[in-house]
Design brief:
alpha+beta, 10 helices, 4 strands, 9% strand
Length: 257
């Protein structure tokens, strides 16, 4: 079945695309724009600008500052974001908060927990799946912070009560969370992992409750690193409560209490 073209607001099913494609730079937004239009059923008249001089002449002629540029029915639509907006796609603002990073992280952690359970016990659904999912999530959250500890510590100092009084703790946190997650995943040195997770989880939970639910501050969470747009609140509180739960549960399951 032939895909039906969706006309633009200016009419027509053919779009002209001008994109930078030189010997040393192939514009990724040009490729994304072409693919976007083709998926909507448009026949794309592709005009690669093969030299910087050619691109400069094009931009000067049409009084634009960037490429790619899309034209539909003789009307200039604009670049990649402008084209998406033209067809009703929502564009997320640069500083807009989003839960997407944390959803992706916890989803992958859950799948990895299932994988560990399948390998260890031959079943997807077991207590090992839950334990492994949480331990992996702790590791992944730690890695996000460890990618740029300096940025993480800066954001973390906005709300963590202990870090505000002892700044080195803002640097230690990422290492501590990762270490606790790795040890819990291995089921090893629980006398180190459990107190560590209990301590940082408790301090973190109290800090989030005070900042968000008592002081009513609107902050971004450092849970997935220092450049996060995840809002501080339920997610960060859940992260800390999960660490507390694991710190109590793992020694219990291993018969330490």
């Amino acid at each position: 079945m032939t895909k039906q073209a969706v006309p633009g607001r200016s009419g027509g099913t053919t779009a002209s695309l001008y994109r930078l494609a030189t010997s040393d730079h192939l514009c990724p937004y040009g490729l994304k724009t072409k693919s976007f239009l083709e998926r909507r059923g448009f026949s794309v008249e592709d005009h690669p600008l093969s030299t910087r001089e050619e691109a400069d002449r094009f931009m000067q002629e049409h009084d634009v500052k960037t490429t790619p540029q899309v034209f539909i029915g003789g009307e200039r639509i604009g670049g990649y974001d402008d084209t998406r907006k033209h067809f009703g796609k929502r564009l997320r603002g640069k500083d807009e908060t989003t839960y997407q990073p944390i959803i992706a992280l916890f989803s992958v952690a859950l799948l990895m927990g299932f994988a560990v359970s399948w390998f260890a016990a031959g079943t997807l659904f077991s207590i090992h799946a839950v334990e492994a999912s949480i331990a992996v999530a702790m590791c992944l959250l730690g890695v996000q912070k460890l990618q740029d500890v300096e940025s993480f510590s800066t954001m973390f100092l906005n709300y963590d009560l202990l870090a505000r009084h002892y700044v080195p703790y803002a640097y230690f946190y990422a290492f501590g969370e990762t270490l606790a997650g790795v040890l819990m995943l291995a089921g090893a040195l629980m006398w180190v992992a459990s107190p560590l997770a209990l301590f940082i989880g408790t301090v973190g939970a109290v800090s989030v409750i005070k900042a968000v639910y008592i002081d009513k501050r609107k902050l971004k969470c450092a849970c997935v690193g220092g450049n996060s747009n995840v809002p501080l609140g339920f997610v960060s509180l859940t992260e800390n409560l999960i660490m507390i739960a694991m710190a109590i549960w793992m020694p219990l399951r291993m018969g330490w209490m």
